[in-house]
Design goal:
Elements (H helix, E strand, L loop, with lengths): L2 E5 L12 H14 L5 E4 L5 H11 L6 E3 L4 H9 L7 E3 L14 E4 L16 E5 L6 H7 L3 E3 L7 H11 L3 E5 L2
Parallel strand pairs: 1-8, 2-5, 2-6, 3-4, 3-5, 6-7
Length: 176
C-alpha cells in the first residue's frame, strides 16, 4: 500500500494489551473473593460496555448484569441488531423496592463511578475497562481497585506488526 493512516492512542512500547478474556477473568475471580461487594465496571456506553458484557457472558457469567441508565438504550439497540447480551437490568432503586446489589456486576460510564450515584451499592469495588489501565498511576488516580486492560485501540505490537505486514511507503498517524 502507498499510504497507511492510523490512530495512535496506545502506540508506545509501554502499551502491550493482554488478552481481554484474561482481564475479564479478574472480575470473576474478584467476585469469588468478594461476594458481598458490588463490582462497578466503568466502561464507555457505546461499544466498550457491550464488549465487556459479551466477554463476561462468553466467560460463563449468567446472572443479571445491571446497567447505568445511560447504557440501556444502546444495549437494547445492540440486542436488536443480534448481539446477545443476556439478562440486563437497570441499576436503579425504586422507592420501596428492595434491590440487593451484593455480588452483582454493574456497568456504568467511567464518570459515574466518581459520582454519588455509587452510594446505592454495597461496598462498591471500582473497576475500569480501558487501555489506560496499563499505566498504574492512571489507574490509581481514577481509584480503580480492579484495573482491566481492555482496549478498542491497537497497542504497540499490533500497530508495528501491521506496518511491517503492509510495508507502506508512508505512515500517517493521528491521535485524538
Amino acid at each position: 500500500c502507498d499510504v497507511f493512516i492510523t490512530e495512535a492512542t496506545f502506540v508506545l512500547p509501554v502499551f502491550n494489551h493482554p488478552d481481554p478474556r484474561t482481564e475479564i477473568g479478574k472480575v470473576l475471580e474478584s467476585l469469588a473473593v468478594f461476594p458481598e461487594r458490588t463490582h462497578l465496571i466503568g466502561a464507555y456506553s457505546l461499544g466498550k460496555a457491550q464488549r465487556v458484557i459479551r466477554l463476561l457472558r462468553d466467560a460463563g457469567y449468567e446472572p443479571p448484569i445491571y446497567l447505568h441508565g445511560s447504557m440501556e438504550r444502546l444495549c437494547a439497540w445492540y440486542e436488536a441488531e443480534g448481539v446477545a447480551l443476556g439478562d440486563l437490568r437497570p441499576a436503579t432503586v425504586e422507592k420501596g423496592a428492595a434491590v440487593d446489589f451484593r455480588g452483582a456486576i454493574v456497568i456504568a460510564p467511567p464518570s459515574a463511578l466518581q459520582d454519588r450515584w455509587t452510594r446505592r451499592f454495597n461496598d462498591p469495588l471500582p473497576a475500569y475497562a480501558s487501555g489506560w489501565m496499563t499505566v498504574r498511576n492512571r489507574a490509581r488516580q481514577m481509584g480503580a481497585e480492579l484495573p482491566l486492560v481492555i482496549s478498542d485501540h491497537c497497542d504497540w505490537g499490533e500497530l508495528t506488526g501491521t506496518i511491517r505486514e503492509l510495508q507502506p511507503q508512508e505512515v500517517w498517524v493521528t491521535h485524538g
